[in-house]
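job 3f2a | input accepted
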Amino acid sequence: MSLENKSRHRNVFICSAGHSGSTLLDMILGSHSTAESLGELINLPMDMALNRGCACGSAMRDCSLWPEVMRRMRVDPARDPYALVLGHTLAKMGDARRTSRWHRILTRPKIAMKYFQLRYDVPFLGPLTSGFDLGMRNTLAVYDHVRTLTGKNVIVDSSKHYVRAVSLYLAEPEQTRVVVLVRDGRGVFYSGLKRGFGRDFSLRAWNNHYRRALELLERHVPEKHRKLVRYEDMVTGTGRAVAELCDFLGMDFEPSMLDFRAVTHHNVNGNDMKFASTSELRLDETWKSMLDPGDREYFEVHAGALNQRLGYT
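job 3f2a | predicted structure (313 res):
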């Protein structure tokens, strides 16, 4: 990649808890004429191992993009896709080699160690986080291969995790922007309760994600390089929200972005909405009428302050 192109490139990382609309935002941004959306890139090796469906409509190994990216990374996409190290993942569903309880037990401490290093600036932990750091270097290399193959300068990655967001930013701070996508915690909480989970379980992932994410992002990513986007604003005022986000990213807003189904995407993993046929968006706020008063009180006690910090009253 030439120095001229290198100076113009932009990495956009969407940091969010699960079920917050990251796949949708990824596809909308990736519909810009200068951008390519990748989905949850961290899961590329697993999707290739299982030969899952790419958002383009092809199986991963038949996709026009991803097998060539892996070959350029000197990895055989069919024989050993896990040779492409992109960092540590804690996916809940998929290949048992990467989603088993034993794998998660072994992986959590590695992620926690990198978090601890970033949170408290502990340099001597460097040798113990070398595997994670290799994953970040490979991730940036994948971004560049996608740029070369697609001719797009802006890469959108919705791998979500705050440790990845900060690590990628520190690697290329001038080229990287972090979008913090949030959703009213009461809606996420109600969704968990509706599926039969207990209060603690329904709240824990959302609460832990944003509490830790804000700690790291405010410490390492200047405010001018990160932007908080509310899912509800994106659905009810899509054009305005996307235009503001484009301005933050240094991109000209293109109204055609809102018809994101008209563009071929190559999203990895993510919500199955990537396969839907309509660009129509609907806001679900069932929690406002259905959340039990006792559950509301529980939420306010344990996460109300954080929810207000994210802009919800």
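job 3f2a | The chain has one domain: 3-181+237-279.
job 3f2a | closed
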